[in-house]
Design brief:
Distance between the termini: 14 Å
Order of helices and strands: HHHHHHHHHH
Largest sheet: none
Structural class: mainly alpha
Oligomer: single chain
Length: 283
Amino acid sequence: MEGNRRGATGSDKDFTFVSSVVKYLLFFFNFIFWVISLVMVAVGVYARTVKHAEATLASLSVDPAVMLMVVGVLMFLITFCGCVGSLRENICLLQTFCISLVVIFIIQLAAGVLGFIFSNKARQKVTEVINDAVVHYRDDVDLQNLIDFGQEEFGCCGAATYLDWSNNIYFDCNQSNPSRERCSVPFSCCIRSRNESVVNTMCGQGMQEREFGEAGKKIHTNGCIDVLVDFIHSNMFILGGIALGLAIPELVGMFLSQLLINQIKDQIELQQYNLKHSSDPWS
């Protein structure tokens, strides 16, 4: 180090330990996620104000629109520290950025471990969410489309069974229910043939009044919870790859920020050394 410092003062006054490649690579890395955070906040605000998501999803423990805005704001603040810290070579901002990434990484890791350990409780929570979605099926077109897509994609109906649709006021099988859809299920529960070009939206009419075996000839009678759990178990490697893909940018950000911090510290030491020995005739 001392030899480098002497060489820098004697032959190259423009020498710096701070790599411009690391500096601007970290800046562009943060800038990309900074833009993504703005998009997340905009989508969250749109869903909250225009789509009135709080009315539709009031039964859920966490409003997705609010969660999207909170994550977007946190992501904005963290990436802002990374952007400004890298451009200004500010150790305080870079350390804030690096520590934030470490905390987020630890939280994600802990959430994954706890989710694996308390898988039964996680299953109960998923069950509550799906049951609430069934209840509010007709309250919002976006929620309705999401449920229809899930039931068609996974070939399932309801939460635990197709009879769960009685929890919805429109499909409730109670004799006092005046709805035309009484004892029915959504068309997305129906078993469609490959040659069917036009969707029969009335195919689920009265299916809750039929026996399990008879209904199974027309609709999917198995619930979406078991299908979803089986899907997760059969795609653990893919899901693990996705989790790893989410963790890689955080690890890259931690590595680049720590590398730049060390370079800035070395540069500060070099400047202090040069300042201290600028009048030293033996330097």
